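User: Last request for today: this protein with fe (iii) ion, please.
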Amino acid sequence: MFETKYALKGIIVQTPVFDKIEFHENEYVICEDGKSVGIFKELPEEYKDIKVYDYSDKFIIPGMSDIHVHAPQYGFRGMGMLLDGDSEWETWFERYSFPEESKFCDLNYANLAYSRFVNDLVKTTTTTRAAIFATIHREATELLMRKLADAGMAGYVGKLNMDRNSHYGYQETTEETIRETERWINETSEGYGSIKPIITPRYTPTCTDESMEALGKMATKYNVPVMSHLSEGLDEIEWVKSMKPEISCYGDAYDMYDMLGTTVPSLMAHVVHPTDIEYELLKKRNVTVAHCPASNMNAAGGVCRVLDMVRDGIKVGLGTDVAGSCTLSVMRAMTDAIQASKLRWVFTERNGEPFAKKHFLSVANAFYLATMGGGQFFGKVGCFEKDYEFDAVVLDDEDLKDFIDRPATDRFQRILWNHHARTIMVKYVQGKKIYDRDRDQQNY
Ligand code: FE
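Assistant: Here's the final one, the structure of the complex with fe (iii) ion:
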């Protein structure tokens, strides 16, 4: 049994709203029954005798959410970022993604690869929640869910659906994809702790109309959310158009099957190239956009209009999209998002104007996306306001320091850009400590 009531003391950082980052130095955040009670300068009378973990001069941040990551691609992260010659993005699937993912039909291989993934995810400086793509294999997907649950993580895992346009034997029949998905939902909706199933058609080109229709009905019937990819690349959008000439935009290919946030919440990765029609549709639907800046840059795809989306009321969080990117760090996704938004501004609004008004993501904005923006997909997750789930990470910047006494705001930025494996001290998910740097020599 773990402690149900305690406080952490340190430099508490959070962004309950998009434009403002709060630093609470030498203050307390209280956890009670897995939820936050709030941030306090002094312990309130009724909590004055609770156990206090003193992390003075360390940073305490809300856990971050990685809302788009492919667990079976973790093994080849950092490869294929630049393919040779005249190869196209699709070749990345041919050379790396499909051959690797097809190996997860072997449970021994899945066990090795997913053990490594979960172990490393738990140790990240950032992630307490994740929305994770698995493969088409039901048993390996359940193995991943069990490992994540046993490690104390929270979030969603999706068994992929692919019943066309794949290779290497890595494809199901339509009948199989429907049958296996329904069985998997029934087997995993209870009993895997805080790891829940999410319906995951890989994307429109790999799923027939018949399977999409069945998946949409399953989402409604079992009240299971949906995730997929949307408007990532220009060539992909043309491909979808050629497959479904009757639709008004790519998003329609999900919306027509109730998988774009009508009956259940929907999580769509990328949305780099929404048409005006698609953008208006997203504003009306319960969709969260997973902004994956590193992946979009590696694919030479473009930069999502994150600031516009947030201002227009579209929900946005951050994804690493491993192995479209090379790291599970959501802090790296934050700094990538900031840098990508600056380049987007340079080549659009600024357009050579020396005194153009600056319009790109701030640290506060990016921290909000990493915590609150993605966190809302999992419930009340992403800050330490009262009744939010207590996901927290304690960060130690001792070995990043120089010889000047710098303010907490500067030190925090330095952590974002320079964190490494020892920066994390402790991680809590739903009030339970799941990692302690000085206790765990990590073997899950
Ligand atoms: Fe992806």
